[in-house]
Specification:
This protein is an alpha+beta fold. It folds into 2 domains: 110 residues, Transcription Regulator spoIIAA (2-Layer Sandwich), CATH 3.30.750; 205 residues, Heat Shock Protein 90. The strands form 4 sheets. Strands 6-8-9-13-10-11-12 form a 7-stranded antiparallel β-sheet, with helices on both faces. Strands 1-3-5 form a 3-stranded parallel β-sheet, covered by helices on one side. It has a two-stranded parallel ribbon with strand order 2-4. The longest helix has 24 residues. It is elongated and about 90 Å long. About 6% of the residues have low confidence.
């Protein structure tokens, strides 16, 4: 039997220790906490697999956006956003992505602060192209959106609630709906609530700085997505302001807030603030032409009679569902992180022409 030398014994021990450590690393690799994934930004920042705020990936999305802001605005780094593994985009998270990238790029002094590494799959590439992310970052992508669940999306932004540009936009949307679906929208009702949501964004959202000190851009204070597909009109408006809870004391009497919130047994204070604003139903501007305030956001759903409304603000959300002009469901909940803004999202089935 061959004698094992001391050097060989030591080598075997080193190999054994290495294998034990490697095994531990493999076990921990798939158990990285969500709040640790995007802590330290670098020149290459990995995007989440799914962009969604209400199905489990909210923390990943928000920390991804904070990592970009930290790298570009604080560390003055040019970054590459790696969307290679991204597969899904949902409306609330996607409009937040659009708004935050626009904010970061606008505030940055760098010549080209953000570049995009394309998703591997075609659908997410089409989404980024359709909503204008490549245009924001200045990246070239020759893909032509073709998918039916992508090509109907429209994205826009602005700093006022002037009706000219959005009136024409909604007319184009309605015309498209009539042509493609033989349906029609109550355009005036839609426009009133869109105008009110944008007005609230401007008048209330930036009354105070949000948690990171941001207090609005001169050129863009709101961002909007719209779509008509399968006879459903979808509209989302986003602002990056301080949220409902920070302004509720400025826009409503303390007696009303105390009386209403005493009847609610919720844990999340942002969700309480959203519904309180909906119930109070008048604007903090005290102007006659904006008498219904946040209530008008819900009144579109009430008037239309069928559909749903989701309002997300900072760490809370409320969802309303209507059928035949009656509220059939109301849900609320909390997000596991502050999204740093407010998103109002309507989904309305279109009315048959024969019923118009």
């Amino acid at each position: 039997m061959k004698h094992i030398t001391l050097e060989t014994r030591l080598r075997f021990k080193r190999i054994a220790r290495y294998r034990v450590k490697a095994k531990k690393r493999r076990k921990l690799k798939g158990k990285v906490l969500v709040n640790k994934r995007f802590v330290e930004p670098s020149n290459l920042i990995k995007a989440p697999k799914s962009f969604d705020l209400m199905k489990g990936s909210c923390s990943e999305v928000v920390k991804f956006l904070r990592a970009i802001a930290n790298a570009v605005l604080n560390k003055k780094l040019q970054v590459i956003l790696n969307f290679k593994d991204t597969e899904q985009f949902y409306v609330p998270a996607t409009i937040l992505l659009y708004a935050e990238l626009d904010r970061i790029i606008t505030l940055s002094d760098l010549p080209k602060p953000i570049s995009i590494k394309d998703p591997f799959r075609r659908r997410p590439r089409e989404v980024l192209k359709q909503i204008g992310i490549y245009s924001l970052t200045g990246d070239k992508n020759d893909i032509v959106p073709l998918r039916d669940d992508v090509v109907y999306w429209r994205a826009t932004k602005g700093s006022t609630q002037s009706g000219d540009s959005f009136g024409s936009l909604l007319e184009v949307i309605a015309e498209k709906a009539n042509k493609d679906h033989a349906k029609q929208l109550e355009l005036s009702g839609v426009w009133r609530s869109v105008n009110e949501a944008i007005a609230n964004s401007i008048d209330h959202a930036y009354m105070k700085p949000r948690f990171d000190g941001f207090n609005g851009l001169d050129g863009s204070k709101w961002w909007m997505f719209s779509q008509i597909k399968d006879a459903v009109f979808t509209l989302a408006v986003c602002d990056l302001g301080c949220g409902y809870r920070q302004t509720i004391n400025e826009t409503m009497p303390e007696k009303f807030i105390a009386a209403f919130t005493a009847t609610l047994n919720w844990i999340n204070r942002d969700a309480v603030a959203i519904e309180t604003a909906m119930e109070y139903g008048r604007s903090g501007t005290r102007q006659d032409n904006r008498g219904k305030g946040s209530r008008d956001v819900l009144s579109l759903l009430e008037k239309h009679g069928n559909g749903e409304l989701v309002v997300l603000s900072n760490t809370g959300w409320v969802r309303y569902v209507y059928s035949n002009h009656k509220e059939v469901e109301k849900m609320n909940g909390g997000l596991n992180i502050d999204i740093g803004g407010t998103i109002v999202w309507w989904k309305l089935p279109l009315t048959e022409l024969n019923d118009a």
